[in-house]
Each structure stands twice: as C-alpha cells, then as structure tokens.
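Quick one - first record:
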Amino acid sequence: MAPKLALAATLALPALTAALPTTRDGDMSAFIVGGEKAQAGDFPFIVSLSQSGSHFCGGVLLNANTVLTAAHCSVDTEASSVKVRAGSLTWASGGTQVGVSSITVNPAYDESTISNDVAVWQLAQSIEEGSGISYATLPQDGSDPAANSTVTVAGWGLLQENGQDLPADLMKVSVPVVSRQKCRSQYGQNAITDTMFCAGLEEGGKDSCSGDSGGPIIDASGTLVGLVSWGQGCAQAGFSGVYARLGALLDFINENVNGDGTTPSTPVKPPRPSRPGKFQYF
C-alpha cells in the first residue's frame, strides 16, 4: 500500500517515503482516475498545497486560518517552505495564495500503517469566504460513511497510475463506500483501522491517485467525511481507495482548530453547514 502523494515528492522526500508501507510492487501513488472536471462551487473549500511552485497535496479550508490535510503530507514539512492556494480550479494560478505559520501532525499518526492520517496547518494570512471560497462542514463525532453510499473525491492528482503530468484543472469522481469488512478482505485484517474507510469500484477504473493526498472526499450532503490517504496503486480492480475517516478524528481536529487560527482551550464544534458543495510534486 502507498500514500497518494505525487511522484516527484516521493523522490524529493526519501526519508518520508522510506518509512511508509509499500504495495507488493512498491508503487507510491494517488490521483483522480476515471473522473471529470469539477465545476465552480463543487468544492469551494479545496486548497492546493505547494512547495517551490509545485503542487504536492490537497487540503481543505476549515475556517479563515486553518487547513486540514493528511499527516503524510505534513511530516518533516517546514511551514515556511509551503504555500496554500484557495478559490481556484487550477492549482498553479488564480484565487488566493498565502503562507503557512505552523503545521501540527496528529501525534497518533503511524507512518508504518498510515493510520490517524490527519494534520492541521495554520495559515500566515487569513482567507475569508467569498470569491468562490467557503469553509468545509465537518461530520458528526463518531460518524462512519455507510457502505454503498456515494461519496465524491476531488484533486489535482494524476489521471492514470503511471502518468507523469498533473492536470491543470481540478478533477472529481464519485465512488461507492466499501464496507470495512470488504476492504479488510482486500488489504488484510490489520491494514484497515477504525480511523479509515474505503471507497471504490470492485472492477476498478475510478479512484483518487498521486497528487490527491490530503484532499476532500464528501458525502451527498456536501459534508467532509474524509481525506485522501492511500491505496494499492490507483483504480486497480479489487482494491479500494483508503481515506482518513474524519468522524473518528475529531478530537484531534477540535483541539487544534479555532476560528482565529489559535489552539482553543476547549474543543470547538464542527462549523455550521456551508454550501454543499495520494502527494506529488511537478
């Protein structure tokens, strides 16, 4: 199994990738396969994370000062070296781009299993709602996407498993949630923890992939239910995509998110509903 990071990032960050589990073929990948272009308003909270002008992961804007992304996109990443772009359907231009003041990785994150795969980034400058930007709605504590329900994932990752170039435009794809029991039969009983859920087609063909890591997966109501995490290649038959299950990770999120970008003294509630709406360098 492998995190859904962008290919060039895995080459640039050997210390990170060496610590992560790999699939039987050693593939490290994550992107949108079998999808279509997203439209304005579909994912008004999605952000592109970049370093040295190159996109490497997705993320989600929770409020004016806070981005949620995958822990595996954040380990050993210096806040001063990365940028966040919001309000654009293209990762390289448009919208608003700001710096990052701090990165907090979930202390429960396990690099060997990619469990508890979530991190909070505090922004150096605020990003207000408007001009195609709004904040994501978090799920209820303990919620777990129901098997066979439809979820939609978005990102700027590769369009095929062995691709080389990221798409300029934001892509999305809808897939059914796969039961945890079924997903454990695909990957192994211990590989799929309770802080993960799975989604995909048994026959493959639709999935997230390299460059999508940390990006959003939402349910039919537009609620943010997970983040792109890892998988066996991309869109392979018999292997679902694996996502961080946010309903099981709210304690960490609430402890590290506040409306003004500071750490709250008491947990914050999920934001009020807004409009419904795998790590790679290039």
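second record:
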Amino acid sequence: MITLAVSLTCLGAKVKEDSLHISNPAVTQLFSELDYLRGNHSDVIKAEEEAKKALESAINNHKEVKVKIEQLKTVNDGYEKQMGALRIEKTNLKSNISALGEKFLPEMTRNPLFLSENSCDKCAPGWILFNSSCYFFSSTESSAVKRNWHESRVDCVSRGSDLVVIDNQQEQVVNFLINHQDASQLSTDFWIGLSDSEEEGTWKWLDGTFLVQGYWNDGEPTNLNDEDCAALYPRVNFFKAWNDVRCGVRRKWICEKAPESMS
C-alpha cells in the first residue's frame, strides 16, 4: 500500500513537470503579445494626444477667423454707410450744379463780356468765352432749329467761326455747360467739327488735324448706316459723350472762334 502511494506521488510530480515544460513557450508568446499591445497602446495614446492638440489648434484658429470676420463685417458696414452718404452727396451736388447752370448760364450767354481767365478777351453777344475761345450754341437762339452737319458748318462760317474743335480735355468741359444748360433737354445733341468722311475710320478735325484723344460713348463709333460725322451728347461723364451719326441727320450745333481783344 505504501509502495502504491509513493508510485502515485512520483507519477503526479512527473506529470506536473511535463505540463510546465510544455506551457513555457505559450507563456512567452503571451508575454510577447502583451508587450506588443502595450507598445501599440502607447502609440495610440500618443496619437490621441496629438489629435487633441491639433483639434485645439483648429478650434483656436476658427475662433480667430470668426473674430476677423466680425471685424471685417464691421469695416464693411462702415464702408457701406460711407458709400451711401457719398451717393447722397453726389445726387445733391448734381442737383445743385444743375440748378446753378439753369440759373446762371442764360445770363452768361447774354453777357458780351463773359470773361475767362484772360480779362482782355471778349465775345460777341450770345457767345460764351471759355478757355480762350468763344463758343456759340445754336440752342441759345432757337431750341427748335436744327441742321445737318454741312448746313451747321455753313452757319458757323457765316458767323466768322467753324464747328467746334475739341482737342484737349479742358475744352471737353463745354459738354459740361451743355449738360446743365437745360435739365429738361438732356437728350439734345450737338454737331462738332469732326468726321471720317474722307477715309473711313480716320477721324479728322476741320482744322486739318487728326483725332488723337476721343471722348466716345461706350461702343462708339459704330459706323452704322454711313455714320461719318461726330455729335456731342450731354452726359454726366462728359469724357464719354461722342457718337458717330449720319451727316444728313438734323442736329443742333456748336461754333467756335477766337475771342476779340479789348482795346
């Protein structure tokens, strides 16, 4: 009986020893996997922290952008208010200029001594002295009389002048006078001494000089239906006030001549 017990004890010890010997590689693999998972966990935690920082930075940037947008909106609102005030001021100025033109221009055209900066020059009655030249607007004699381009030139020649030559920006202010001569007749247009009847597309003044600087309206000249003569139209922007027109059409006209010297 004792011998049997000893034998069983030895057998159990041998089985336990064999079990531990068999399980050691599995334990090693488990520890390896555990170390791997721990490393990956550290990487995940690090990536999570970096993501949190990136998110915080993005949130801060978003807040800064929102602040800048609000600031820009405030500035834009200020500009809009300024633009509105300028538009109102522009409208008021145009009204005031128009009223002044209606009030004083008729008196100036009737004054034979309407002077420019040169007090030694004068113009005949019905003519306007401006920029060292005398200008005659046919509308000052009759708002109903209109002539074609050639007839208008004949009339100017009979007055010792010719159709107006606009060869610099200062003389283009004549259109400003027209624009405010009569606010009820803004559709009125006037012949000027410019045509391309000799050679299509080559615009030439009556004094023989070629056009250097033109003040054409947008899209002009068009040369539709042999439009070989130039007419000046009242415009708010008097540097875009010319159209080409058929020479046979009847229009009002502007004459120009040198002033008379006062003795």
